[in-house]
Amino acid sequence: MENNNKKVEQLKQFTAKDEGQPLTTDHGLKLTNDEHSLTIGERGPTIMEDFHFREKMTHFDHERIPERVVHARGSGAHGVFESYGDASDITMAHFLGEKGRQTPVFVRFSTVAGSRGSAETVRDVRGFATKFYTEEGNYDLVGNNIPVFFIQDAIKFPDFVHAVKPEPHNEIPQAQSAHDTFWDFVVSNEETAHMTMWHMSDRAIPKSFRTMEGFGVNTFRFVNANGEAHFVKFHWKPVFGAHSLVWDEAQKIAGKDPDFNRRDLFDNIEAGNYPEYELAVQLIPQEDEFKFDFDILDPTKIWPEELIPLRKLGKMTLNRNTDNFFAETEQIAFHVGHVVPGIDFSNDPLLQGRLFSYTDTQLIRLGGPNFHELPINRPVCPFHNNQRDGYGRMTINKGRVAYGKNSLQNNTPHVVTQNEGGYAHYQEKIEGRKVRARSLSFEDHYSQARQFWLSQTDVEKQHIINAFSFELGKVETIEIRKATVDMFARVDRAMAEQIAQNIGVTPPDESIQQVEDQQPSDAVSILKNQVPYLKTKKVGIIVDTNSNLEELVTPLEKEGVVVELISDKQGRIGQREIDHTLETASPVLYDGLIVAATFEGVVPNRKVQTFADEIFNHYKALGYVSVESMDKDYANAPGVVTGATEFVEALKKGRHFDRTDATG
Of these residues, 36, 71, 230, 335, which one is catalytic? Predict the structure, then answer.
């Protein structure tokens, strides 16, 4: 007991009570602003003098050892990018300069909030990071599956992540945003409104990495050989289109197979079903920077595709799995500052902070400055400089010179001109005072949130309402629930009123004005852009010894569908091996189900009914071998069919959201 008391007293000396205290740096300096980085002018670049930003971001970057602070749960694969044509009119980037030019790549997909051991089908943003091993050096396109972000300035990134991570007093909940601190951050920072709408949509529960869009999020620059610049945003478009789970299904998959997305990626690459994505860009000429009614440097805003159309530049194919998950997927180090000639930066305040944060993160996570020498990070082109020593140094540099300028080594390694392939920053004229402020053009937080809502189908709108209701239903503080409802009444009053009714708070205050309607952008809707497909979809067939397997399996396999046989016991039926029993399989892991068995026992039949119910409630294709065998409750329901041809068509369509009595 005495020792315990001593320990308590010892800990008290290091206990800080922050409530009611002024904000300071780690060294006690009181701060006048914690909202904005120090920039040159309201729309200018962040400057190195900003000691507060660097201290705050450095501490955040070094908070986890050794896994990533964010994006810890990831999966990766190798592939190749092939250029569609010569893009030298917009960029000097060599890998985009010739039709058919191929560049090796490595892609890492990830969730953001959860730890390495968390499930993959949680409601979360997904990372979509690509390393191009070009002849001019490594180029990293580091993005997400949602084109906007929660915050405008990187100085608030530690605050956002602290809010969405498990709450520090009890480390609960894991990999979820359905808790008080996240929603307190949302209502306390109105700039989150647009991204929160995306987060509550089906975009946050993608069906697979193979059917997930990717976005560069930030505004970059393309520069051509003549010095002509365009602002640019990057898009990855999956060839199979974007597809999502439904929420009940996503939660159940998290329990049945927490590795669902990485397993899907790995298994399909092993089977030769290579995921494909087209790279496209949106371009705004330098002189048109102020042409739009939104600020193009604001990372909480999209550039509507109806205003700024996409230009496709090439296609990426992922064709090889990793040989060692840790050595490749875990040790790969991305950085938005890894660019090649022809790709440059804008003054997007979130991007400016990322340019510091990524390298700082790798220093602690990978043990020092030589992370570029790990095999997965090494460029395919030679690299020469005067860096030496440090943790993990692999290169054995010869000679006595490790500095420049020098005469002992003929001043080598030496710099080169831009015409010789040297990187030169775009010479943007910058004027302004050193300030901690944000341009007034960043202050419209609700117009594009409204646009997103108006762009959704009725089904997608209901999913958004359901998502808000679930998430806020987990919030313990009634005042935060109420504040959230009031905040999103600015986006859509009817939506907010329905959410209020579902979560037990009063309707939005009458004084709150809904923002004006915006022109919808169909490009942001998943269901308006569905790509029907069959190849690689997975179907479970429940069979017994009386099932005609070839009649069931052959039409599906001809279409490239993956078929798994399920029965009450393992073994063989005819020439085929049973893949799973009713105990080891789960309906949530399939895109469709065929019931082709009638077991004698009551228990197996009850389990079959459970399988059929799950498939039906998640709007998936459900097949029976005959009308007589069909569940009478499902007769005439959309996507419930008999016959192989009919089932193939139902499966190809995907979700049957016109199934009004489904509950998923």
Answer: 71
The CATH architecture assigned to 532-653 reads: 3-Layer(aba) Sandwich (3.40)
- Residue 16: pLDDT band (50, 70, 90) is low
Mean pLDDT across 105-120: 97
| Catalytic position from the list 36, 52, 78, 144 | 144
The pLDDT value given to residue 6: 63
Verify whether residue 144 is a known catalytic residue.
yes
In sequence order, the β-bridge partners of residue 83 are: 314
CA dihedral 69, 70, 73, 76 (to 10 degrees): -110
71 is catalytic: yes
In the annotated binding site for heme, the residues are 68, 108, 157, 354, 358, 365
Phi (first) and psi of residue 167, to 5 degrees = -65, 135
Half-sphere exposure (CA, 13 Å, Cβ side) for 583? 4
What is the distance between the alpha carbons of residues 141 and 334, in angstroms, rounded to a whole number? Answer: 8
Instruction: Give the 3-state secondary structure of residue 75.
Output: strand
pLDDT at 481: 98
pLDDT at 130: 98
Residue 76 makes CB contacts below 8 A (sequence gap 6+) with 106, 107, 108, 109, 322, 328, 329, 332
Burial class (CB in 10 A: 0-12, 13-18, 19+), 32: exposed
Percentage of residues of the chain with pLDDT beyond 90: 79
As a whole number of Å, the CA-based R_g of the chain is: 27
What pLDDT is stored for residue 622 in this prediction? 97
Q: Is 80 helix (H, G, I), strand (E, B) or coil?
A: strand
Instruction: For the chain, give the mean pLDDT.
Output: 94
Structure-token pair, residue 508: 């939005």
Tokens (6 digits) for 590: 């399939």
Region of residue 590 (left: phi > 0; alpha: psi -120 to 50; beta: else): beta
Cα(143)–Cα(574) distance, rounded to whole angstroms? 49
> Same fold for the domain at 446-528 and the one at 532-653?
no
3-class state of residue 200 by DSSP: coil
- DSSP assignment of 317-338: EEEEE-S-HIIIIIT----TT-
Q: What is the total residue count of the chain?
A: 664
- Report which listed range, 21-25, 365-369, 431-435, 482-486, is most confident: 482-486
According to the model, what pLDDT value does residue 404 have?
84
If you classify domain 446-528 with CATH, what class do you get?
Answer: mainly alpha
Taking the domains of the chain in order of start, what are their residue ranges? Answer: 38-373, 446-528, 532-653
- Which architecture characterizes domain 38-373 according to CATH? Beta Barrel (2.40)
Note the pLDDT of residue 56. 86
